[in-house]
Task: inverse folding
């Protein structure tokens, strides 16, 4: 198979669409061009796209699906570092490490000692139980924690299989020492976590968001966190991203911000690239791809 020379960006492709004329396969990742009518008209022979990153939503409008082009994504590999980041955040949260770090810096001395939940028998809540949620649960197995899950698509039989307690969203926030959000960003999930959920949280509990900022009603969250300094929020994602200049999220003493680093970084990206090579080998042999994405599946993935 011949390769188009060089590495190309969405800009270089826009400037030189003729490069697509004989292309049958595209390997891409974050920053891929939108494969709309104009793009597809320039790529009449395109048969398959191997996306070495997570969500394909931004690059696959309706026009893409009408062409019947095969597409696969490395979202399963990107879930691995997210679950690892979440595990580390949960364990530190159960020690109230964020409170001690932030208050020690602010006071220039150790703050009053507060009783942490501890990592034995505490309740950890996972909101949504897809690829990442299940990996987080797997990584929590050695730690003797009581894992609760809110997911309207999870059956009681599946909950029993994974040894999790299936509960309502309100119960997650009311009873759990740590609440970790893993819901995909869909039109239906925008703002699903709102102020009243944060008001339900236990004193000393922690909310973690490695999903998407738009799933949380940010203004309502900020209002509650301002009133409740004993509740901590770890936000790897916000909406917009980064927060606007002057946002209280930068200054609230009970908020930890990280710049969307839970997903694959640097060497972790090689794992996603390797998966796409493996997928290409299957496709080239006429075998089913393990992580192929249909239009229907794309609609419910993150």
Result:
């Amino acid at each position: 198979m011949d390769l188009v020379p060089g590495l190309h960006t969405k800009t270089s492709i826009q400037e030189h669409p003729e490069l697509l004329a004989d292309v049958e396969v595209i390997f891409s990742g974050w920053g891929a061009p939108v494969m709309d009518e104009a793009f597809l008209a320039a790529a009449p022979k395109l048969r398959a796209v191997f996306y070495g990153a997570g969500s394909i939503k931004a690059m696959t409008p309706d026009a893409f699906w009408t062409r019947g082009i095969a597409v696969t994504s490395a979202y399963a590999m990107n879930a691995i570092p997210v679950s690892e980041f979440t595990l580390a955040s949960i364990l530190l949260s159960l020690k109230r490490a964020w409170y001690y770090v932030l208050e020690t810096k602010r006071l220039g001395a150790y703050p009053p000692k507060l009783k942490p939940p501890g990592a034995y028998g505490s309740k950890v809540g996972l909101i949504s139980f897809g690829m990442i949620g299940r990996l987080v649960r797997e990584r929590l197995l050695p730690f003797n924690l009581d894992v609760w899950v809110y997911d309207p698509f999870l059956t009681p039989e599946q909950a029993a299989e994974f040894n999790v307690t299936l509960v309502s969203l309100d119960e997650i926030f009311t009873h759990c020492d740590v609440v970790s959000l893993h819901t995909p960003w869909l039109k239906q999930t925008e703002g699903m976590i709102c102020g009243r959920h944060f008001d339900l949280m236990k004193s000393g509990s922690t909310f973690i968001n490695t999903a998407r900022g738009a799933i949380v009603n940010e203004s309502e969250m900020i209002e509650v966190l301002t009133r409740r300094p004993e509740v901590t929020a770890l936000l790897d994602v916000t909406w917009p991203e980064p927060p606007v200049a002057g946002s209280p999220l930068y200054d609230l003493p009970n908020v930890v911000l990280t710049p969307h680093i839970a997903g694959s970084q640097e060497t972790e990206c090689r794992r996603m690239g390797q998966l796409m090579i493996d997928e290409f080998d299957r496709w080239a042999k006429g075998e089913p791809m393990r992580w192929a994405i249909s239009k229907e599946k794309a609609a419910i993935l993150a």
